[in-house]
Amino acid sequence: MENKTTEVFGANVERLPLKDLIKRIGPGLIATGIVIGPGAITTAAMLGSNFGYTLIWLIIPIVFMGITFMMVTNRLAIVTGMPTIHAIRKYYGPVAAGFVGIALFMACLFFTMGNISGTGAGVNLITGLNWKVGSALMIAVVIYCYFTKNVYSKVEKIITACILGMIVAFYATLIGVGGPDWGETGKAFVSFQIPAGGLATALAFISTNAAVTTGIYSTYLGKEKKWKKEDLFNGVMLTDAVIHIISVVLITGSIILVGAIVLHPTGQKITAPAQLAEMLVPIMGNAAKYIMGVALLGAGFSSLLGNTQRGMVLLSAGFDKDTALESKAIRVGCLICLIVTMIICYSYGGSPTQLILMANVATSIATPVAGLFILLLLWRKDVNEGYKKPTALRICMTISYIFVLFMTFSALKTQIPNLIQSITLLF
Description:
Elements: H1 18-24, H2 27-35, H3 38-51, H4 59-80, H5 84-92, H6 94-127, H7 131-146, H8 151-176, H9 182-189, H10 199-209, H11 212-225, H12 236-263, H13 275-284, H14 287-318, H15 328-347, H16 352-379, H17 391-426
């Protein structure tokens, strides 16, 4: 009688040595550069300045959810043979794919607004130029990168340099202020409390640093990187996801601690990205503005460079159009997005933090929308046929999605009125 036992793919794939794993990563670093923009810096600073060490425990769900989202979306890309939104189109139809593409694009578009103001703020701190002039210069550099060859390679190298610069800048600041109170930090890590008024900021922080949008976009970057199905099992994708989330936590964690040490005891609140530099002047002197200027410029530029591409790729995927980074449609689309967001930012009369608020709200809405279809795909038997059942990933994704829903609907009760008010200010 014929043996019906079928060996599932991946069972005999050997893990690569660490040096080979390092050579194969890349999408996670680009994702970090996109995630760590002015919005991430501002919300992290707000957590520390407004609530001290209390919300440092949010790093735990960010690590859990960040790795889960990256691994689930990359797995689905491997087992379906296509990036996330294309898989949604195949299994749930063009309407679902289009809806997800639009939701994710809008989240990215709002982030671009925050990135423009943040990049300008960084140039202003370093050179004294008007933030609009500074951001225009950086946008010109971004456009040049978009319209040259080997876009992926250039983006990966530039963003890696920006990430390293941010890590150095923020840890220099953390050392300069004397370091954290480790006892308070340890207690906060196991408190799992959200103080009064902290839910909206907590949601903004989580939705910025552990958004399913990042995982979805990584599937298209993986295609550019030419990842193969063996990379799901030989450690490449896991290493990429871990390095992504570690770099995010290293940066945002240091910002929270600086806010808790320097700003929280004074009772002063962060209302603009550049304000953190002003608060550090008594401790670090004139060097404070340059340190924060480099950090903001690195964060804004790297996020601006990758985020606009991300938005156009996800929108194009929603409508089954070309998603290659060097395609004419993506390049022209990025140019149009930059022009539109520049006009909005330069004519906007409110605080830049209002733009960041809208970006965070948009992301918190987009994550449950796209996350639902990802969760459904992960639980489909036909999708995982021929591969080992992803039991652990299914459990982790379900927990993450429920947590996102709870945080989103709880916080949106207060954020929606603020979002409506902010949108009216744009017009």
